[in-house]
Amino acid sequence: MRLLLRCRPMDYAADLHIHSPHSRATSPDCSPARLAAWARIKGIQVVATGDFTHPAWFQRLKDELTPAEAGLFRLRDERPLPSPLPGAAPAASTPVRFMLSAEISCIYKRHGAVRKVHNLLYVPDFSSAERINRRLAGIGNIVSDGRPILGLDSRDLLEILLELAPEGFLVPAHIWTPWFSLFGSRSGFDRIEECFGDLTGHVFALETGLSSDPDMNRTISALDRFALISNSDCHSPSKLGREVNLFSTGLDFFSLRDAIRGNQRETFPGTVEFFPEEGKYHLDGHRSCGIRLTPSETRALPGMRCPVCGTPLTVGVQHRVEELADRSAPLYPSDAPQVFSLIPLPELLAELLGVGPTSKQVMEQYSRTIALFGSEFALLLRTPVEEIGRAAPLLAEAISRMRQGRVIRQPGFDGQFGVIRLFGQQELNRPTGRRKSDRVQLFSER
Asked: Do 240 and 38 contact (CB within 8 A), yes or no?
């Protein structure tokens, strides 16, 4: 019967990991309406709700969302939304749907060690979420944080999901992050089976996180059967789409889920990724001492300790991947989803303008760019470079370099984001005495 509810195939982008205002260090701006408005700016059609376990957010979701396609929701009030970028009004006809999701921080002892693993839950309806919430409330505190911290084994969390929401699915979150993840250097496992035991077969996808990409993960044969998804894990609406998933399937929960499980390019065309060096745990290091090291440099140190202060280094994602890898190069099947490595448009504009990515000048040019090209992903992924060049030659050159992977990488480490640049220090030819008030002209005057 459910098959009759599925929608016709279409191409769309989905960001399946975000947070509400009830999670720590998140913007109060994360309302459903504001998320939908930013999704239109970005060119995203499906946004996870995040945090359905939090009672106040769950109630707000029920108040402000209404069922749309099977397992997805839309804003109850779909009157035209004010654009978050003045002067930029993406097509109002772009559908924005919400998918019920939550992230659980599981902290527990397994095999004689304390494990700290974050897991994502996805369910198709409020009644499933409500059943899960009631069960989790009996285990620990789900009120103090939108991403609740529970003394619950990851395997047992999966069992709860399978019992109470059998149509739902679980994805281990940002699987390489040192502190809170499946393979994290500080609290994780070396094998998925060690984490999920007899229920491992019910896990079919892994979230790579900002500090790794599919190329890194595909050097590990034990991960071959798993789909790799990528999401923003954003804490404010403007950060939506830092990473997203691309689908060519029905716009409904079940088609999306099955496209991930199938892991074939026909229905799951690919993922949009950070360059992994931009992630804040890519390399090893100790931020307070300004120490950033490659895995080989770390291994050469006595006890892998900071050469400045002597405390243990934070072992990053690249190091952990190398520890578990059994291939020297990534291996993909012929029909594997593609990988598109992009730089968020505000960061790209900030480099061209020589100012910060949240500056007024960047926001003005961001608005103008969206007004011209329709959405951020339309510009970064699909608009021909020649077309961009007619309006903004320097922007066209930047996007051409980015699409070709011709970037300058300064890797992140120990909680500090890396920097990805497109031009060398002298290429943009900025006068050394240029005042902040001087404008860099990006667009051709017509």
From this structure: yes
